[in-house]
Amino acid sequence: MPISIRPARNEDLEIAAALVQRSINDLWSRHGFEPSMPLRPPVFQAFCLSEDATGLWIAEDDEAIIGFGFSWTLADFWYLAQLFIEPGKQAMGVGGELLQKTLLHAERLKATNRALITFAFNTSAIGLYTKHGLYPRQPLYRISAPASVVQRRLRSSRYACSPIAAGAPVDWLGQIDSDILGFRRDRHHEYLLRTDATGFRIEEGGSAVGYAYASPEGHIGPLAVASGADSAEVVSAAMEAALSLQPQQLSLIAPGGADALMAKVIELGFHIVQPLVLMSARSFGDWRNYVPRDPGYM
Question: What percent of the chain has pLDDT over 90?
Answer without folding.
Answer: 90
